[in-house]
Amino acid sequence: MSGRMIKNENIFISGGCGFIGCKFAEMLADNNKIILYDINTKKNSYNYSSISKHKNVTVIEGDITEPEMVRNAIKDATIIVHTAAIVGVKKVIEQPRLTLEVNFIGTQNILKSIQNYKKIKRFVYFSTSEIFGGYVFRAEEEDNTIIGTCNDARWSYAISKIAGEHLVQAYNREFGLKTVIIRPFNIFGPGRFGEHALKIFIEQALRGDDITILQDGSQVRSWCYIDDFTQGVYNSIIYEDAIGKSFNLGNPINTITIYELAKMIKRLLGSKSKIIFIDATYSDIDLRIPSITYAKKVIRFNPCVELEEGILKTSQWYKQFVK
What we know:
The protein is α/β, with parallel strands linked by helices. It has helices at 19-28, 67-74, 89-94, 96-112, 155-175, 197-207, 226-238, 258-269, 293-299, 307-318; strands at 10-14, 33-38, 57-61, 79-82, 122-126, 135-139, 179-184, 187-188, 211-214, 220-222, 224-225, 245-249, 255-257, 275-278, 287-290.
């Protein structure tokens, strides 16, 4: 499929009703059959998407920890995109056991449900930038991953994703499964729900509420707009050289402190909100900036939406929810 369009495929997306799964499905729905498999099919991104009634899209409500449900849903797939996971720092800290079990056992169930490994043209596994630890500067794909202390529940998420990466790559080595690992770095854009700093800042600014920043706001992030990100995922499927590889997908040119991000949102939206600082109740990531040199070379990843443009597009979408 090197460099070609994805057409006439049966595509299974776990967590498919969520932000990234749904946005990726929008790229594919006109030319492929899509199954969105998700435990939450009610109040989520899917219900506000352009594919909510698309003739080529089927939604199946199911749990990735239930092997039989997964096996039945995935049986006709030729491409598998595995995004489903427990996410969000607060949820992870409150439910570390569930995080580990869902993220690892769910991945194991999906892999074991594949009847014919040669039939699968690509298995895309969504990992996380958090596997690099709390201080990530120009992280490259082959840099060592960090196993955080078991005394901090936050790291149960990263551990589950590291373990998933090893399992996925084992299937590539032992069975020839055509795998790709994606490590997202702070993806944002219209359609995102849940616990997410940029989303929260925009909603607070639109309402005129205080914009609340954890700690002193000196934490650094690189923000990648959803359209750039999903194009990177698409490219990881169409380029044969991607098989068996891992890719950091983010946008280093959109690097900014959390405090400067809050000020930018205030300015762009003409908001009267005050910026206030509150204590964090959990450990945070101080610095998170990827290197995307390898992704540019192998899958022609070229993010181009700058942060201000992305914020304006995103805030326009969130206005419908602000009273």
